[in-house]
Amino acid sequence: MSLIHEIDFGTPASKSEKMISLTIDGNEVTVPEGTSLMRAAMEAGIQVPKLCATDMVDAFGSCRLCLIEIEGRNGTPASCTTPAMQGLVVHTQTQRLKDIRKGVMELYISDHPLDCLTCAANGDCELQDMAGAVGLRDVRYGYEGDNHVFAKSKNDNVANDRWMPKDESNPYFTYDPAKCIVCSRCVRACEEVQGTFALTIEGRGFSSRVSPGMHEHFIDSECVSCGACVQACPTATLTEKSVIQIGQPEHSKVTTCAYCGVGCSFKAEMRGEELVRMVPYKDGKANRGHSCVKGRFAYGYSTHKDRILNPMIREKVSDPWREVTWEEAYKHVASEFRRIQYQYGRNSIGGITSSRCTNEETYLVQKLVRAGFGNNNVDTCARVCHSPTGYGLNKTFGTSAGTQDFDSVEHTDVVIVIGANPTDGHPVFASRLKKRLRQGAKLIVIDPRRIDLVRSPHIKAAHHLPLRPGTNVAVVTSLSHVIVTEGLFNEKFIRERCDWDEFQDWAAFVSMPEHSPEAIEQLTGVPPQALREAARLFATGGNGAIYYGLGVTEHSQGSTTVMAIANLAMATGNIGRKGVGVNPLRGQNNVQGSCDMGSFPHELPGYRHVSDDTTRDIFDKLWGVKLQNEPGLRIPNMLDAAVDGTFKGIYIQGEDILQSDPDTKHVAAGLAAMECVVVQDLFLNETANYAHVFLPGSTFLEKDGTFTNAERRINRVRKVMSPLNGYADWEVTQTLAQAMGLNWNYTHPSQIMDEVALTTPSFAGVSYDLLEKEGSVQWPCNEKAPLGTPIMHIDSFARGKGKFVRTEYVATDERTGPRFPLLLTTGRILSQYNVGAQTRRTDNVMWHEEDRLEIHAHDAELRGIRDGDWVKISSRSGETTLRALITDRVSPGVVYTTFHHPTTQANVITTDFTDWATNCPEYKVTAVQVGASNGPSDWQIEYDEQARKSRRIVQTLDAAE
Amino acid sequence: MQSASTDIATRAIGIINQLKDEEGPLLPILHDLQGEFGYVPQEALPLIAQALNISRAEVHGVVTFYHDYRDHPAGRHVLKLCRAEACQSMGGDAMAQKARELLGIDWHGTTSDGAVTLEPVYCLGLCACAPAAMLDGEVIGRLDAEKLEEIATEVRL
């Protein structure tokens, strides 16, 4: 094991297909046209000394170290800014160049501290490397002159006003201006890679400094802590605090982030079993070397003191927890589940798979339910997020997944973002999108709230359609209305690829006057002219891509909106090539994978219905059981059945349904009615308050496996440390299955993936060997596509002909009225993740320590609410309190909050209305009233008390085994 | 009554709105702000950033790059002495020394009565008439001790 060193080519790759040849230091090199001489040299293995160049950002030409000589040309041009040309003869090491470089290095070092031995970057410092490379032996200028290094002048002890103290305000990295060589790499990374523009160079000449914001501390500036600047810094100026504390890592492994559905690849850099830092991996095909504050820095939860490391049992949920051995826990669960089944019937228990766990673990949980419990009562958190995506895209295209890879965004011309807030929910994708927007692509945002993408430095949406929550179908259908009635649809594509009769039926439907932008304005609040212009732009602006999130799916008409989106993409011919497509932004790291692995009660792995005899037959034979051919219970049905007394036991792996699912009181009642609730998690989450058995979980750093991201990419997760709790989650599920009498003997997750490949056609070609070789693959991966499928539906749709579906707008039953006049919609914030179980246990809380209620000044004034006041928010389901934030990001009549903190319990308010097709809850629309409040609601107080009690642990085991 | 900072904001927004749609509006806005206030008020920078859809950092980077943009008001007069090579070779150093003595201030300082601010400048393009100076925007060639004394008296009137 050693540290993975990625080659820094100095400047980005050229995308040109024309190749040219030249000679560098006597070596013939062939590179694409537009490649810099620096990169061309590196391709030939020749490293030209450099400081200001790095291949994540464009060449800048400021450090004057990478100079070269070209035969027949005068001077010593910078190799980073000089393009390679056919037939050039280049020399990178001549006496003249050596002298210049040495002189430049002398100047750098004369204003740099010489504390290398005690410097955090020791061993990972490009300045140090370059001093070595150019053979620096002496600094003629000395170290005592004008400088930024010493707080006081050495000669007269007078304060040095060029010196600036270290900025340690960011929880994860420090900025030490004394070590800065003003190469501008951080500034450029912030601009070009992240797209936030939080950094600048202030002053000029010798006074130049890196400045966050307007000479502010990092934490007060516009910085979003993505870490791109830290990664770009060649010295110790920007350094991870963890490196300062621990020291340089000695080995690393490539793994996949366990936060959102972007699925960024990281190098986990280690010292022994201690994680030093997570560094985004340039070969990661989803993130291309970029990261966000969560994946890069927020991994501290994995060793947080709140982690539960021993299994625990209790008779009643009012009892304190009792620590037990693993054997006792398995025995207890097995006998309880068998007792319940004996007493209440085979279908009285079920399981919930986790979108946070690996494909292999998810596969095992559904296998346990199907083969071990003998029913189909398995569901997953996708139920509450992207189940409508699965349904809608399957109906129209024939596959339950997004059509593109993330690279596709580099080729798009018009983007529709609907019901998603990528800068907060999917930050790395947002950075890639913003980069494309800065290159000139147009953006249409359809969202009730003015998200950052609508307008932030250097990007601006061409159109923002601020629709009323719950009217997605009306708006998307109306876009199609404009496209069809104005003759902007792509007839050639439709005739070739779709069913023409179905199209005509659909076209007649959308053309009806009641779907015109003018007619729907009353419902949606969207100005008709803007909607018309947006539709024209999308239909005529070139490659059109649609990205959407939970703002689309989590509605009573979620599936309908997904199909309306698919219709729109087909009608405009935007399917089946780079730069187009329908792209669901998946919420969780492995929500795509958990769906793929057969987590739904009606589907076996690979989205094959349980009623399909041939599919069942495959599993019947392999598992030696007889699978049920009727779909099992979905999560809400399980809870209903529990309240009715027919569902009594559940195994929940890695999901906090009490906090994340709607109508908290109903969830609580369902759980309370069960006799054996088994929760497997890292922490005593909110659901565990109602659990009888707690099995400690392991983090993504502690196990091998795979995650499948939003682009269907299967990425390896690699174990970098031993599980603190002793076992990876798949081992726990396996042992539990063994305790229930199943003969499972997997010794490594790769064997589980082999079983998936054996049984599931779209995964037939997937193996750990292939992933090792390719880094990652996108399913379908089989004989037809041995290296996977970056873009789907290229020549024909998976289902054959694309299907147009009529999408009638039906208003949700959740309506505003005199008692509840406002519409609440919910979302996320950059620094926090989902229910916050992980991010709340990291320093990310510095950015978001509580959930706030965003309310428009007009609505606030009517209610006498000032910014920061405690307010009560109530709906038909319940009420809670939180503090108000007055903003014009939401329109009058709409309020917004996040659900990251359990004390807020936003889901006490959300209702039990769900998507008609998939039961996906309608989180995004709740009629509410808001009023002044003095503090927490009765429910919050009661709940806190109950939660506190239920978390008591009686220590019976000595130290962890 | 409006507080001082809301007043600055209102006046700044007026200037920003007038110029924001021109091509390359940042420098003209900063010029007009300095014309209006005698300096570029720090509180105007976020307003510019917002109006031009750029970051606060970028505005800060530009403002601090140019020596001419002040972050606080100057004296009633501004005297700039050329410190560049041609003027130095024609006795500029002595003029610089003399000016500082006469006014009793160092570079970038303002006399305690607020009469004048003294600044170095690197070339006024008047090398043929070195040493050169500039008083309140008007260039002065062939500066000598006598002229400096005149200036020093004049600015204090």
TrEMBL record, chain A:
GO annotation, biological process: formate metabolic process; respiratory electron transport chain
Signal peptide: none
Top-level division of the source organism's lineage: Bacteria
InterPro entries assigned to the protein according to its UniProt record, in alphabetical order: 2Fe-2S_ferredoxin-like_sf (IPR036010), 2Fe-2S_ferredoxin-type (IPR001041), 4Fe4S_Fe-S-bd (IPR017896), 4Fe4S_Fe_S_CS (IPR017900), Asp_de-COase-like_dom_sf (IPR009010), Formate_Dh-H_N (IPR041924), Formate_DH_asu (IPR006478), MoPterin_dinucl-bd_dom (IPR006657)
PROSITE patterns noted in UniProt: 2FE2S_FER_2, 4FE4S_FER_1, 4FE4S_FER_2, 4FE4S_HC3, 4FE4S_MOW_BIS_MGD, MOLYBDOPTERIN_PROK_3
SMART domains hit by this protein: Molybdop_Fe4S4, NADH-G_4Fe-4S_3
Keywords from the UniProt entry: 2Fe-2S, 4Fe-4S, Iron, Iron-sulfur, Metal-binding, Oxidoreductase, Repeat
One GO cellular component, as annotated: oxidoreductase complex
Gene3D superfamilies associated with the record: 2.40.40.20, 3.10.20.740, 3.30.70.20, 3.40.50.740, ADC-like domains, Dimethylsulfoxide Reductase, domain 2
Domain 4Fe-4S Mo/W bis-MGD-type: from-to ranges: 250-306
Annotated GO MF terms: 2 iron, 2 sulfur cluster binding; 4 iron, 4 sulfur cluster binding; formate dehydrogenase (NAD+) activity; metal ion binding; molybdopterin cofactor binding; NADH dehydrogenase activity
Residue ranges occupied by any 2Fe-2S ferredoxin-type domain in the UniProt entry: 18-96
Domain 4Fe-4S His(Cys)3-ligated-type, first and last residues per copy: 96-135
Family per similarity comment: In the C-terminal section; belongs to the prokaryotic molybdopterin-containing oxidoreductase family.
PANTHER family, sorted: FORMATE DEHYDROGENASE H, RESPIRATORY NITRATE REDUCTASE
Name of this chain's protein: Formate dehydrogenase major subunit
Protein's organism: Phyllobacterium myrsinacearum
Automatic annotation (TrEMBL), chain B:
GO molecular function: 2 iron, 2 sulfur cluster binding; metal ion binding; oxidoreductase activity
Residues the record lists as binding [2Fe-2S] cluster: 82, 87, 123, 127
Domain of life from the UniProt record: Bacteria
Cofactor note: Binds 1 [2Fe-2S] cluster.
InterPro entries per record: NADP_DH_HndA-like (IPR028431), NuoE-like (IPR002023), NuoE_N (IPR041921), Thioredoxin-like_sf (IPR036249)
SUPFAM superfamilies named in the record: Thioredoxin-like
Coiled-coil regions listed in the entry: none
Catalytic activity: a quinone + NADH + 5 H(+)(in) = a quinol + NAD(+) + 4 H(+)(out)
Named cofactor requirement(s): [2Fe-2S] cluster
Keywords, comma-separated and alphabetical: 2Fe-2S, Iron, Iron-sulfur, Metal-binding
Assigned protein family: Belongs to the complex I 24 kDa subunit family.
PANTHER family in UniProt: BIFURCATING [FEFE] HYDROGENASE GAMMA SUBUNIT, NADH-QUINONE OXIDOREDUCTASE, E SUBUNIT
Name listed for the protein in its UniProt record: Formate dehydrogenase subunit gamma
Organism from which the protein derives: Phyllobacterium myrsinacearum
